[in-house]
Every structure is written in C-alpha cells, then in structure tokens.
User: What shape does this take?
Amino acid sequence: MHWKKHVTGLTFCFFFVPSYFTNKYVLSVLKFTYPTLFQGWQTLIGVLLLLLSGKLGWVEMSSFSRSAALSWLPGSLLFVGNIYAGSRALACLPIAFFFTLHNASEVVYVFMERLIKRDGFTEISGMKVISVSVVLLSAVSLPLHDPQFDQAGYTWGVIHLCSLGAYRVFQTHFKPNHLSVLLLVLAAHPTGDLFGAWKFPFLLSLRFQSGCCASALLGFFLLLATVKLKSGLASEQCNMWIFLSKVMAICLSPFVFISDVNTPSLACVVFSHIGEVLLVYSDRILR
Assistant: This one.
C-alpha cells in the first residue's frame, strides 16, 4: 500500500538524522580525534547485531567464498576510505557544509560512469548536465566563502566525495545478492589509534561511552533502514527521501551545534541541494 512507502521513508529519516548528529557529537564536540578506533567500535557492535539479526531471521545472510571476498576487496577499500575520510570531514565541518561536499560525489559518479560506458558523454541529458554543474559549482565555491575555513576538513571532504563516488560506481557494476558483513569487517582497523586513544580524557566518561554505543546502534538500524528503503522503493523515490533526510539534518543542526555561516556559504548549501533535486528530477524523466 502507498502508506507503507511513507512509513519506510520516515523510518529512514528517523535514524538518519540522529545517526549523523551522534557521530558529529562524538567527533566534534567531544573532539575524539581517533576515527579508526571509533569506526572499529561501531563495526564490532554492528557485526554482533547483524549476526543476531541473521539468527532471528530479520535479515537474509549468506556465506561468501574467498573469490567473492577478493572480488569485493576494491569496493571494501573504497568503503573504508569513504567512511574514514567522511568522519574526518564531519569532525571539522558543519553538517550543512559536509552535505554540500557529500553531494558532489554525484559528479564523480557521473563522470566515471560516462568513462566506463561506450557512449561517453553523448547520452547524458541537458537537465543532468545542469544539475551536476550546480552541485559541482556549489562545492567548489563553498571553501572560498566559508567564514571558518578549515583546510583539513575540506581536504578530507574531497577524499570522501571521491571515494563515495567511486564506490557507487563499483556497486553499480558489482551488485551483491545478500547483505554481507564483509565490508563491516574490513572497516574495523584501529591500527595505532588504539594506543593514542588512551590519552583521550573522556575515554572512560559516561558521555563518551553512551555516544559511542548510540552511534553504533543508530548506524546499524540506519543500515537496515537503507536496505529496506532501496529494496522497497524506486531509485528516484529513495533519492528523494535521502534528500529530505539531509534537509532535515541541515535545518535542525543549528539548534544542536554551533556553526558560523554567512550569506554566501548558505547560498552554496541551498544551490547544492537545488542541484540535488534537479538530479532526482532528471533521473525520473529518463525513466
């Protein structure tokens, strides 16, 4: 029924916004500068919950062969790069600015897709060109007008959008049939952060531990909600719910986090999301 689609979308929004807010709180407000350890903790909780969900029959899981794991290795590396760089960027940038850079991953995706396909750029629609151009110009202009320019944040943001765009291309050409824990397992790589993190003053605090647990739980349920959203709705409907979730997060973030935004940087954010709407509309026309 039609109302079930709205329930699925609203459920996705319900987990999307607090998930990003919790990650931002731990990485930015508490200034926990060890994202690999934070990611490893999230992975541990996520894998345990995923295995439990598989036992209870909530999700469909299957074993994978060594050859399948090796074939997914490039995608896993892109996934890890996407998450790590995204965490670094989110820690330094306001949520609105982070999503403006995040939207530019569509430019990388479209460019790489056109290079892979034989038709090159001849089959791309005019609306698609306009929308991608608006998103790209917004992302390029944002650092020039950011009143609190953070070079590290934007550097990690560029790495994030490139990794995300390339990962989407990989997903398009290699689609798994079942929900797999492979990416989650390979995402856990604390490395040297494990030793440096012991110097973190909030490591044993209730706020930090609660934030980490909440982030892991919200991330897991967001994963399930994303799978449900993409399996039950058409791609343009999924993209519209993702767009609405980001707009909700941007509108609510000033009430939770302090950020310095001026008129030009706000215009970059607005035009980026106008370009995103045009992207959704162009995909709908092509269908």
